[in-house]
Amino acid sequence: MLSSFQEQLKAIDTLSLRTFCKGEELIDLLRHSDVELRVRNPSTPETIDAHHHIQNLLEFLHSQRSSFLEFAETRRRKLEHRLALKQLEADTKQAIGCIRNGENMLLSNIIPGYSLAEAKDSLVEYEQFKTAMEKTSQRVASIRSRADELVKEDHPKPEQVMKCSDLVYTRWQQLMRKAKEKQQVVMASYNFFKTSEQVSSLLQKVLKDYKIGDDPCSQYAELELRDRCSVIASLLENHAREREDIAKGHEAVYGFADAFLKNVSPTAENGGTVTAGTPNDANKEKMEQQVKEISELIRGQKKFALDLWGVKNTVLGQCKEFLDFETNAKQALEWIHDQGEFYLSSNATIPESEDEAKQRYEEHLKFTEMSE
């Protein structure tokens, strides 16, 4: 409609300008003509020059053209406002449809998963939902921005304009709240199963590596004493780090388990909130049971692993004590060989003078101090 109106307006304006040009040409022709042409004045019984009559007609046409252009501008603005509102309503309807599709995506998989693989699938589906909603977010922002502009431009129906903006914004905010709730459920599920698997793998490795009866001192007996000390010190350091990893991993599992249960089965007691598309009671009970079983399994593995850790820690500690003793003994033997035997052999004779005896006595005191 607006396009047709603009074409008609352009045609009328072009015809008016063409008439002005023709009129000016005719006036110029009559003024330079030898023939005097007179016509009756429409407003009086008298006659007037034809060129004056044409001039009056052009002035009247100009006045009418100005009035027409003002009317046309008013009409154009009304049509633009009407078209803008129709377009805004159509875009709002489309955005609401996209939001409804997003709600269906959130509700399509209300079970966050019973395993790490299923939790990963739920996480992938949620990421797909986020990607799909990016364009919808842009649509919502565009609708709100255009609505604000129309109101600033004094749209004749600001209530209808803001109704579109408020409707799409309200539905979008509701969807975002549901999406946040779904994200909490999905991430809690993924974090729990992923951490449980990592901790379980760590504990299984510990149980496999910790063998009762292994003697680290015997395992590295072929190495030099200095190298054996370095290896045992490194083993003790890694051993202490493993215990810290076990404790932190176990704590993380229970933390994620608690968060998972709060999001999957919200109650006033555990501080949870009612989430969108949460599993039904049967699925909740199954999930709770599975989470508890996994947590108890890891608790048992942790207890057994820490018992073995304590045994191995004792063995490593004893090995280190033995190596420290061996190191000290070796140093003592080397000192006896290098210092003690030399001192005894060099002082085997009896001093021949008082000064020599005094010197021998001072050397003896120094040797005694060093031997201690």
From TrEMBL:
InterPro entries xrefs: RhoGEF_Guanine_NuclExch_SF, Spectrin/alpha-actinin, Spectrin_repeat
Sorted UniProt keywords: Guanine-nucleotide releasing factor
Lineage top rank: taxon: Eukaryota
A cellular-component GO term for this protein: cytoplasm
Keyword Nuclease recorded: no
GO MF annotation: an example: guanyl-nucleotide exchange factor activity
Keyword Flavoprotein belongs to the record: no
Signal peptide segment: none
The name this protein goes by in its record: Triple functional domain -like isoform X7
Annotated organism of origin: Paramuricea clavata (Red gorgonian)
